[in-house]
User: What shape does this take?
Amino acid sequence: MKQQAFIIPLILAEESKELCVYELKGGNFFRDKCMNQGILPGHKITLVKKCIKGPYIINIRNTNIILGQNIARKILVTDTYL
Assistant: This one.
């Protein structure tokens, strides 16, 4: 039986969990900015740290990237890989 994939915004993900970027919800400028930083649909990321009112730190290919909450809201992730 195939496991159901839950697609959630990055802000709802658990810390220290390996995730897969599912979709980037935003305009062309937002998508280009994410892609220039290596945040691409299908790529694995790890949510290193999240703060209630602060930035989110993700790890992509051994590089930490700091994201604001508005950006983290627009990145949809899943725990199963595409």
About this structure: The radius of gyration is 12 Å.
